[in-house]
Amino acid sequence: MALALLAGCNTPPRVPAPVESRNVGGRTATPAPAPVAAPAPDVSAVSPSAKVMPGAENAGKPGFYTVQRGDTLTRIALDHGQSWRDVASWNNLSNANLIEVGQVLRVAPPNAITESSGVVVQPMGPVTQAAPKPLPQAQTPPTQAAPDQGFAFSWPANGQVIGNFDEVKNKGLDIAGQAGDPILAAADGQVVYAGAGLRGYGNLIILKHNNTFLTAYAHNQTLLVKEDQQVRKGQKIAEMGKTDADRVKLHFEIRRQGKPVDPAKFLPAR
After folding, report:
1. pLDDT tens digits for 8-31?
2. 161-265: CATH topology
3. Are 100 and 53 in contact (CB under 8 A)?
């Protein structure tokens, strides 16, 4: 009797009801499991390609440049005939060393860029009757002076030319000499770069002469001028060296609107 009472006091553990299988049409059917909700998408994982780069709305427009891999602001400015400081200012760059691939930069002065079609439509005034004007006589058009006329460069060093201009392999002239030989400004201008931040040029000076021409003086041993300084034609601006070069030499470039041109065509015969 005692054992029976003890057995009655012990409540058996609850177990889940067995899944009921029903015979439907000779087949055993088991109820389908409850649907499992799909996980919410991870909104933090955004594709980098979806990022809108600064200035993207100006891509392809005249006076703008899309940054490529390996670019620096100094090289971009040199290739477009500008001062890197101006390019940084036009694009509100607080740190000139922070530019991104795909970023679109303004590389021409704001007032020099025509962002529309450039077609000006004059308003029509009242229609009046007027006698037709006689056709003008054929005249010989006046000869226009080339933009390079009246601007003369002088040789920046006295050594022998050991490397001629080549659009692909050598964007200027290489002039031999001894370490410490004077490097002279080829024309009046302003120093828009003085430093060693452009790979392949070593200690470099860039002068801006006007809105058309820049000159570059590379591989110097010593730089004697600073950025924003005004220099005169023939002024000593550096001493020859071999920084980032295989021998002592001056690499000299003339750039017209950012494009390298053959300096031999602009320098006097000697």
Report:
1. 445 555 545 554 545 545 555 555
2. Glucose Permease (Domain IIA) (2.70.70)
3. yes
